[in-house]
Amino acid sequence: MKIPRYYEKLENYLEPNKALLIFGPRQVGKTTLLNDFLKTTKLKYRLESGENIRVQDVLGSQDFDQIKEFVEGYELIAIDEAQKIKNIGMGLKIIVDQIPGIKVIATGSSSFELLGQTGEPLTGRKRTIILFPVAQLELKKLFNNYELKSELAEYLIFGGYPAVATQVTKNKKVEILKEIVESYLLKDILEFERVKGSKIIFNLLKLLAFQVGSQVSLSELAQNIGVDHKTVGRYLNILEQSFIIYSVQGYSRNLRNEITKKGKYYFYDNGIRNAVIFNFNELALRNDVGALWENFIFMERLKKRAYKGIYANAYFWRTWERQEIDLVEERDGKLYAYEFKWNKGNFKVPSQWAETYKDTSFEVINKENYLGFIL
C-alpha cells in the first residue's frame, strides 16, 4: 500500500530562482517524495546527494564559476541530504542568484544544521515545508472515517512512520521502530560536535516519554540524568530541531496564578515515543492511554495547521490551583481552548479560564469527535 502524501505535487511549491527546502525527521519519506516527483516532472533535472564528497566539494566551495559549471544546462537541481554540505546556504544562494530561471529542491533531516546554514544566505530566496510522519489527513484519502477510527489504537501505539504504517504484523512494526530509533533517529544528533554520546540523550528521551502531557522542569531533568541544566537545555533544543520532540510553553497574560516557566514536550510520533520506553502493549494493558491520546491529537492538529496553512500560536494553560487546558490556539486575535480526553464525559471549561478569558471558545476532543478536529 502506498500512502499519498500531502505535498505530492511539489511543482506547486517550486518557484524560479528560489530554493524549496523540505525538512522533517529521518525515515518519514522525504527522499521518496522527491524521487516520485522527479519521475513525473518534465523539467531537465540533476539529482545529487549531500553525502557525495564531490558534491560537498563543489557546492561548499563558494566558487561561482565551479558551481555555475556544475548546474549548467539544467532547469532543476535537487539535493538530497543537503545538511551534509558545509556552507550549503551560500552554495544554494549562488545557484538561485546566478542561474536565470533555475529551480532548486533541497531535503534535510535535521534543521539545526540546514536551517542554520541557509537562514541568512537564503533570506527571500527560499520556501520551507515540513514533512511529518503520516497524518490522518493523508490517510483520509485512502480510508473513510469508520476505518480510521477502527485503526485508532494502531496509530496510538505504533505511530505514523510510513514503513511502520504499511506493515500488517505487530512484530514487523516493532522491528522497524526499533531500527529507526537505534540506527536513524539520533544519527544527526550524535554527529553534532558537541554531543559526545548516546546514553544521556536516551535517558533524557525516556524521561520525556514518561512525562508526555506533563509540565517539565529543566532542573528536575538535569538532576535525574546527572548533568547541569544548561546541558539539558542544549540537548532539548537539539532534539527539537532534529524533529524528535516538540515543545510548548504556557499561556499567560501575566496573571500571578498562571504557570509559564515550565514547558511541555510532545514526541513527533507516538511509535517513536513507545519505542524509546519499549512499550507496545495494547491499550487495555496500559496506564498511559491519556498521554498517548494527548500526544497523538496534539501532533495531528499540528500537522493539520502546517499542511492547511492555519497560522496560530500554540500554548497550554495551567494555574497553581491545577486548573488546566491542554491546547490554546491564538488565531486571528482570538483564543480557542481545547481539552483532550480519551473518554467522552461531561467536562466543563475551567472556571478561572472562563473568568479571565471571556469570549473564547472551549471544546473537549475525545475519541468520538476527534476526526473533525484533525481532518
Word description of this protein:
With 375 residues, this protein is an alpha/beta fold. It has two domains: 10-130, P-loop containing nucleotide triphosphate hydrolases (Rossmann fold, 3-Layer(aba) Sandwich); 144-308, Orthogonal Bundle (Arc Repressor Mutant, subunit A), CATH 1.10.10. Helix content is 43%, strand content 17%. The chain contains 18 helices and twelve strands. It has helices spanning 30-40, 53-59, 64-71, 88-98, 111-118, 136-139, 145-150, 152-158, 162-165, 170-185, 187-191, 198-210, 218-225, 229-241, 270-277, 289-308, 351-356, 370-374, and strands spanning 19-23, 45-49, 76-80, 103-108, 126-130, 215-216, 245-250, 263-267, 313-318, 324-331, 334-340, 361-365. It has a seven-stranded mixed β-sheet with strand order 6-8-7-9-10-11-12. Strands 2-3-4-1-5 form a five-stranded parallel β-sheet. Strand 9 and strand 10 (324-331) form a beta hairpin. Helix 3 (64-71) packs across helix 4, helix 8 (152-158) crosses helix 15 (270-277) and helix 13 (218-225) packs across helix 14 (229-241). The protein is globular, with a radius of gyration of 22 Å. The model has no long low-confidence stretch (mean pLDDT 92).
